[in-house]
Specification:
By secondary structure, the chain is mainly α. Helix content is 79%, strand content 1%. It contains twelve helices and two strands; from the N terminus they run H-H-H-H-H-H-H-H-H-H-E-E-H-H. Strands 1-2 form a two-stranded antiparallel sheet. The relative contact order is 0.10.
């Protein structure tokens, strides 16, 4: 038999629930719309799937989590493989974006000679990477016929090596930009103020003599992403790999989380 107090509390609790329902629905709808924007473009979708893939990889390597009720009903390895397959498929059209990148670099190259050289080197290694990955992927799916397993494997390895080249060039770019920031006055005296403008992202301004907070945060984020990618690029550049699945999961998750955090911010 229910107590009088429980009967009196029920209408009050129901009233509270109903009164907060519109606000909760609005918040939920807003978050779903925000998440939808994270899937709206191929670059954003790739970062989202990358983060999801390596998160699942970590979960699959953590026994208490992998044996939870929800995950026990899902076979994670096939799901991770499916997400990886989708990401590679979406990159098949990457050469179009690389062509646009090359064209914009041709029309408006960095004024700094070293940054210009790095930009063109990145265009070249990324085109080679994309051609090799596309070929290996399509051959593995049987679209390109007459490929041996050995040839397909070599193309995968060499695509990883050109990816490693891109990450190495990213470190050079970030280092050069940092060097220019520290020598702003010196560069300015040589008539190179255009170089400073080139280095800044999205026209972010200065705070005193230092670099704008937004620019500083972006620089460190890109450094962190590439630091996480670097061992992975070496891993995929070797036929037998060099890191364990656990380490691969941690590194991939770190790179994905840092990149996806920026996606979440810009799509807000």
């Amino acid at each position: 038999m229910a107590s009088p107090n429980s009967k009196s509390k029920l209408p009050s609790a129901l009233h509270t629930l109903l009164s907060t329902l519109p606000t909760n629905l609005k918040t939920t709808t807003t978050q779903i719309a925000h998440l939808d924007r994270c899937f709206a473009t191929t670059p954003h979708l790739d970062k989202t799937l990358l983060t999801l893939s390596y998160t699942l990889t970590l979960l699959s390597k953590t026994p208490p989590l992998s044996h939870s009720f929800l995950l026990s009903k899902i076979s994670l390895p096939p799901l991770i493989a499916l997400i990886s397959d989708v990401r590679i498929f979406l990159r098949l059209w990457g050469l179009l974006g690389l062509t646009t990148w090359a064209h914009s670099t041709w029309l408006s190259p960095p004024r700094d000679p070293y940054l210009k050289l790095i930009a063109w080197a990145q265009v070249v290694v990324n085109i080679l990477y994309q051609v090799l990955e596309n070929g290996a992927y399509l051959a593995g799916k049987g679209v390109l016929v007459g490929w041996s397993a050995e040839r397909c494997g070599k193309w995968w390895v060499w695509s990883g090596r050109f990816w490693m080249g891109h990450v190495g060039l990213e470190f050079l770019r970030l280092g050069r930009e940092r060097w220019l920031w520290g020598r702003e006055e010196e560069v300015g005296e040589k008539g190179g103020k255009e170089v400073w403008k080139e280095v800044k992202w999205k026209g972010a301004g200065r705070e005193g003599k230092g670099v704008a907070k937004e620019v500083e945060q972006r620089w460190w984020r890109e450094l962190g992403v590439n630091a996480a990618y670097a061992p992975l690029t070496l891993h995929y550049s070797l036929e037998g790999g060099c890191v364990s699945p656990n380490v691969e999961g941690v590194l991939g998750f770190a790179a994905g989380a840092l990149g996806w955090g920026e996606v979440w911010r810009v799509t807000a």
